[in-house]
Amino acid sequence: MDMRDLRDKNEAGATSPYTLIYLQELHGKNYQGLEDQARKAIFEENLKKIVQHNLEYELGMHSYHLGINKYSDWSSQEFTKRMNGLIVSEDRTMDLYEPSGDMELPSSLDWRSKGYVTGVKDQGQCGSCWAFSTTGGLEGQHYRKTGKLVSLSEKNLVDCSTSNNGCDGGDMVEAYKYIIKNGGIDTEESYPYMDEKDQCTYNKSNIGATCKGYKRINQDEESLKQALAAEGPISIGIDASGDNFQQYKGGVYNNPYCKNGENDLDHGVLLVGYGQENGIDYWLVKNSWSEWWGEKGYIKMSRNKNNQCGIATDASYPIV
């Protein structure tokens, strides 16, 4: 069976040996001894939660469903520690985006269809989400200006942005500052990603894009919607600490327990659109956990629900 076919089949209810094949063969999960036993126990517990949630989903109790993915043998605590690396910058001195009062907003929007968004990437076991959010925003703005979609180097940021902490977290604003001071950022091709911090090897001859400034967006969803429609993809921080976020598979993610304060945000992502599904408003968000997670790397998050998960709390975009 093709590996992508297995990915598309990772619905709850899958049982051994499929689950073992999925985790061990598809993602090179080879545990030994006590760790093997512990991983199996974590996986079985996560599977129970997935099955229970999806039974409730079928009864109309939830607007989203869950599925097995390559993180299903991790506890929620270690998942959050390894994957959610946003450390919100204290810098609030940047310019604010000023929405146009007479702009007519489309009922739905997807910047992928307009050529602004590169393919889904994978941050690996490194808290570098902030770097992927940064490159996503700059890739979109570079395309807007030049008509060329260039994949930019997250590794350049992880290794060289010293005001951030590499795989131990960082923030998009601090990354913008580095790119401005540095005179640009290398291409993905010239400085490919690895999920670890190394010595900085930036090469100015390999610049893929430059940045001359950045703007923050007011902390409300209407301002965010206007900025997204007018400017392109937006870098945002969210609260992604909920158990079900780890196992999200599809639908509109609605978590009333999500927090939205600046200190509650723990994951940097890229906002690329909005719309409605089954009458429910959503934001379309690009993640950096590979196509094996969510809707082939994307998640639809609740929109117009009091800034749920802090979707509008820390939104910004670069200026090229």
UniProtKB/TrEMBL annotation:
<keyword id="KW-0865">Zymogen</keyword>
<protein>
    <submittedName>
        <fullName>CTSL</fullName>
    </submittedName>
</protein>
<keyword id="KW-1015">Disulfide bond</keyword>
<dbReference type="InterPro" id="IPR000668">
    <property type="entry name" value="Peptidase_C1A_C"/>
</dbReference>
<keyword id="KW-0645">Protease</keyword>
<keyword id="KW-0378">Hydrolase</keyword>
<dbReference type="InterPro" id="IPR025660">
    <property type="entry name" value="Pept_his_AS"/>
</dbReference>
<dbReference type="InterPro" id="IPR038765">
    <property type="entry name" value="Papain-like_cys_pep_sf"/>
</dbReference>
<keyword id="KW-0788">Thiol protease</keyword>
<dbReference type="InterPro" id="IPR025661">
    <property type="entry name" value="Pept_asp_AS"/>
</dbReference>
<comment type="similarity">
    <text>Belongs to the peptidase C1 family.</text>
</comment>
<dbReference type="Pfam" id="PF08246">
    <property type="entry name" value="Inhibitor_I29"/>
</dbReference>
<feature type="domain" description="Peptidase C1A papain C-terminal">
    <location>
        <begin position="105"/>
        <end position="319"/>
    </location>
</feature>
<dbReference type="InterPro" id="IPR039417">
    <property type="entry name" value="Peptidase_C1A_papain-like"/>
</dbReference>
<dbReference type="InterPro" id="IPR013128">
    <property type="entry name" value="Peptidase_C1A"/>
</dbReference>
<dbReference type="InterPro" id="IPR013201">
    <property type="entry name" value="Prot_inhib_I29"/>
</dbReference>
<feature type="domain" description="Cathepsin propeptide inhibitor">
    <location>
        <begin position="24"/>
        <end position="79"/>
    </location>
</feature>
<dbReference type="Pfam" id="PF00112">
    <property type="entry name" value="Peptidase_C1"/>
</dbReference>
<dbReference type="InterPro" id="IPR000169">
    <property type="entry name" value="Pept_cys_AS"/>
</dbReference>
